[in-house]
Amino acid sequence: MKSLNVNFKDLKSDQSCLKILPLEFVNKYNCIIYCNYDNGKVVLVNDNFDYYNLNKLSFFIKEELYICYVHHEDWIELTKNLKINDDRNQAINKFQINSNIISQSSLNENNKVFYNAEIESSPIVKIVDSIIEEAINYKSSDIHFEPYESYVKVRLRIDGKLFDKSPLPFETFSELSTRIKVLANLDITKKFIPQDGKMIFSYEGKDYDIRVSILPCAYGERIALRILDLHNNILRLNDLNFSNKAMENINRILGFSSGLVLVVGPTGSGKSTTLHAFLEKNLERNENIITVEDPVEYTIEGITQVQINEEAGLDFATCLRTILRQDPNIIMIGEIRDLETAKIACRSSITGHLVYSTLHTNTSVGVINRLKDMNIEPYLLVDALRAIISQRLVRCLCNRCKKKVKINSYEAKALDVDEDIYIYKPVGCGYCNNTGYSGRCGVYEVIILDEDFRKLITENSTSAKFWNLIKKKKIERIFDNGKLLVLNGITSLEEIQSVLN
Ligand SMILES: [Zn+2]
């Protein structure tokens, strides 16, 4: 920390700096991160700033701090004019003053929505926009609005976990719901039926595809938005951080000309990301690739992607039968949910197609039991199934704030390493929403089924025998893979344990 003896009026505020501290923090601790300076940042403080609170600032910035003092009168003027993350609060205040703009002016006699300048600048539009923008800034996958008796809960899902944001007053809910329905082309006159739609949201020059789901509930409607970033989210194989050993097996799988390859794990474990990376790599083969998905989450040029639509009778099985008449080499089935789909997947994989799909099981060995439970005959399974990839997503430590510590004896035991090594722990800073984590990466277990595995399937063996075989063959287990990430400082032991238990 250094003090900076200049008049703050000679400095130019920087919007990206102003966004670092939440408004509540600014008001509570009387400090503002104002601009970049030298190799650090300028922090404006007033008379009420307590230097004991400096360490709280270090959670938000690791760089050098230059403290610049601002007189009380200037401070009031300054905070009034600065845009410190407070657009939303202003909009909420305004909302309470003229809250009926949309409901009165947005409907004409046919209940058709028309836009006018008044609506586009109305408080509810600012509230909705600012929440979606905040979600995008935090790289959230979902936004939830849940109305209760006196307020609307707002939550963002970031790296797989839900975080509460400041709630909205209950009075905003009806307009909020209308605004979102307008954006998603839904029927704003219907309040008691579930509705699904989508919208394109433009922000900082990029388009985001947002799925909207509306579900009636006790105090109104539960609104969930899923943000799909169509252009950025296709991860290349190299981004998925497979270990060297896993990568060797993945390369073999990508070279298969036929067979069934299943990716398994619970919901939200990144299964479809993995498959899309496979397909993207398989483009090199110049073959006919068709997918059937629900929903199509990432679009890949050069691949025909079919969206299933059960209401219109286009379920996985029906789509697949049609796809098979389109002469595909590689087929990707979003998910195997029923016997019919499982059968088609197995049969097409033994008739010269490479078939990728996902299955909702927790372990790699669970796949075999699951398919048998679906009544797939062992002889079909033996011929079809060629590889299983089991995976989970773990949160990566935030590189700006992670802390290096010497391992303790419990951790050394859990990781099966010596006690003189160092690992990293989460801390929390302004860049990672104070969670200590930022972004996620996969942990994997890749099994290619050879003659020994096929023998066990034919013999209808127990799961224990499969696990023994995996051990005997020294196949890298999912925890082994996670361990590597901990030892490389990519994630923490706590995170691996909580995800893998
Ligand atoms: Zn951090």
Describe, in plain words, how this protein is organized in 3D.
The strands form 4 sheets. The protein has a 7-stranded mixed β-sheet with strand order 13-12-14-15-11-16-19, sandwiched between helices. It has a 6-stranded antiparallel β-sheet with strand order 7-6-5-10-9-8, with helices on one face. Helix 5 packs antiparallel against helix 8, helix 12 runs parallel beside helix 13 and helix 15 runs antiparallel to helix 17. With 501 residues, the protein is α/β, with parallel strands linked by helices. It contains 20 helices and 19 strands. It has 3 domains: 80 residues, GMP Synthetase, Chain A, domain 3 (2-Layer Sandwich), CATH 3.30.300; 142 residues, Beta-Lactamase, CATH 3.30.450; 195 residues, P-loop containing nucleotide triphosphate hydrolases (Rossmann fold), CATH 3.40.50. The site of zinc ion (ZN) has 8 residues, from loops.
Write the layout of secondary structure elements.
Layout: E1 2-3, H1 15-18, H2 23-29, E2 31-37, E3 40-45, H3 54-57, E4 64-69, H4 72-81, H5 87-97, H6 101-105, H7 117-120, H8 123-137, E5 140-147, E6 151-158, E7 161-169, H9 173-183, E8 195-203, E9 206-217, E10 220-228, H10 244-254, E11 259-264, H11 271-282, E12 289-293, E13 304-307, H12 316-324, E14 330-333, H13 339-350, E15 354-359, H14 366-373, H15 378-384, E16 385-397, E17 403-406, H16 409-415, E18 422-425, E19 437-448, H17 451-458, H18 463-472, H19 478-487, H20 493-500
Parallel strand pairs: 1-4, 3-4, 11-15, 11-16, 12-13, 12-14, 14-15
Antiparallel strand pairs: 2-3, 5-6, 5-10, 6-7, 8-9, 9-10, 16-19, 17-18
Helix pairs in contact: 5-8, 8-9, 12-13, 13-15, 15-17
Bound molecules: zinc ion.
Zinc ion (ZN) binds at residues 398, 400-401, 428-429, 431-432, 436.
